[in-house]
Amino acid sequence: MKFGVLQFPGSCDEADAQLAAGRVGEAVLLWHRDRDLAGCDAIIVPGGFSYGDYLRAGAIARFSPMMEEVIAFARDGGLVLGICNGFQVLCEAGLLPGALLQNTNRRFTSRQVHLEVVSPDTPFTRACAPGELLSVPAKHGSGRYYAPDDQLDAMEAAGQIVVRYAPGECFNGSARDIAGVCNEAGNVFGLMPHPEHAVDALTGSTDGLRIFESMALAAGGAHV
Amino acid sequence: MAGTLGSGVLMRVRVLVRPKAGILDPQGVAVEQALPALGFSGVTDVRIGRLIELEVDDASQVEEMCRKLLANPLVEDYEVQLLGEASGTAA
């Protein structure tokens, strides 16, 4: 299992993403100006402030040469995980529905949250039990998930709401407490909290590993 | 250098980007709550958007620029204003 972790000017979580993915497989960094996915089985778009978050978070990163390759990879069914700014990039790229808006509390907020696994059947959550709570950090200023109500209804019916903030823990005003969603095909997943920062007991939780273990399981088995 | 599709005359264009109606604008709320503290009463519905000005040699492309990059049509409305010829022309 080989993971490719994208690196933009302004990325800041690519090292942790590489370390986390390295616990379950091989992980290499992919520079935003290159176009070679280096034979990776899965792509991680990491957190940070790609291209300075100019205009809107993720808006300019979405047009980088490497993202063009990732979009084609995702359209072919390849596994793509977007974390925080990576989630914003995937929404801007149209690979995931919805948009991330400024937190209702108007603050950059950093805290440990519990994520409820709503859909344990995706390639990103299959190592989790239904309803399992994952303790992972969240740290962002623009993580308020938004999609029109009718679209949210359709996404819920289709199992595309993958993780929610546990009751009372949604600090950013996200619609229906949504923390992470997948596309219709299930091969692209984005979430605001950071599983890659929760892979070592030293920092308080290893629950984030479940996401990477799930991806390794998915890549090892039949193609999704 | 003017693009091949352009007229060679640069147009000054202004794009106004606003949060869509019904979408909470936390910045607008903050400003609305700050104004009474300065003695300005009776202010409601403050909305904060973005103003983008650009010079283009083919103004017909601006609409597509808005859809693809300058605005996110899911959460923002945009308005294109043609301001007339730019002070300089395309070299």
UniProtKB/TrEMBL annotation, chain A:
InterPro entries: Class_I_gatase-like (IPR029062), PRibForGlyAmidine_synth_PurQ (IPR010075). It holds the Pfam family GATase_5. This is Unannotated protein. GO terms for molecular function: ATP binding; hydrolase activity; phosphoribosylformylglycinamidine synthase activity. GO terms for biological process: 'de novo' IMP biosynthetic process. It comes from freshwater metagenome. Keywords: ATP-binding, Cytoplasm, Glutamine amidotransferase, Hydrolase, Ligase, Nucleotide-binding, Purine biosynthesis.
From TrEMBL, chain B:
One of its GO terms (molecular function) is ATP binding. Pfam families: PurS. GO terms for biological process: purine nucleotide biosynthetic process. Keywords: ATP-binding, Cytoplasm, Ligase, Nucleotide-binding, Purine biosynthesis. The keyword Metal-binding does not apply. HAMAP family: PurS. This is Unannotated protein. It comes from freshwater metagenome.
